Each structure stands twice: as structure tokens, then as C-alpha cells.
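Quick bug: Endonuclease domain-containing protein output formatted oddly.
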Amino acid sequence: MRPNKPSASIKRAKKLRRELTKPEFMLWQILRQSPGGHKFRKQHPAGPFILDFFCARANLAIEVDGMAHDMGGNPERDAKRDAWLAAYRIDTLRVPAVDVLRDTTEVATSIIATVEDRLTEFGKAPASLRHDATSPSQVDGEE
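Here's what came back:
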């Protein structure tokens, strides 16, 4: 079961898609190309929350955390958010923004490895095998 998407969350997500932070923008330049055949969404609404990036097939939220996530009540808020998502079987992978700035490709490679590990764990076929499958229209002789 997927969490509801309140209209306020959808509106906020659309706004945030236009205002990515520098690390989010850098990572999105790689993830938007569907590396390894895996589709990612940016600033995806999930209930009252907006996920920086989301891979639905792997039930994985990817959060790029800057220094603000370590301050004040933010660690507690993040823990509550992660628990709320976990109730919907969505796990959160937290990536320090400084790591994205230092080596975006390495971070993206790590994310893809996590996605592939999760898909293997779930018993889902690799993306490369899904794309090579014959479509029903080809079997029926339709074009």
C-alpha cells in the first residue's frame, strides 16, 4: 500500500522540483538517466513528506542531507519520518550532501548498488531483463 498524496504535498513537491539544492541537482543529473535501467523520481510526495529521490520498484527513498539535518530537532524529525515511511515498507537511504559534492558519480554508483541489492532481495528481475521481454502486442501479431 502506498501512502496518500495530499494536494498540499503535491503542490510543495512541484515547487521543490524547480528549486533543487546544488547536491540534489548534481545527483539528479545522473539519476534522471535511469542508470542500470532503474527509474528515479525527484521531489516525490509521500503522505505529508517530500522525498528528495524515490525508486518505486525498490521501495527506496534517497535523502541528500546537509548540515541542517544534524541540528536542533531535525535528527528526531528525520527518525520519525523514516519510521513513518517504513510503515509503508519504504526504506530511507541518507546520503551526506558533502559526499555528493565531493564525488557525485561514486554516490550514484552506491545508490544503484543499493537498489540492485534490494531488488535481488525482493526477488524482482533485473531491469535489463524486464526491458528485453516480449510485449503482449508483439505476441498477438499487433504493431
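Actually, after a second look the formatting is fine. The CA atoms of residues 65 and 96 lie 5 Å apart. Closing.
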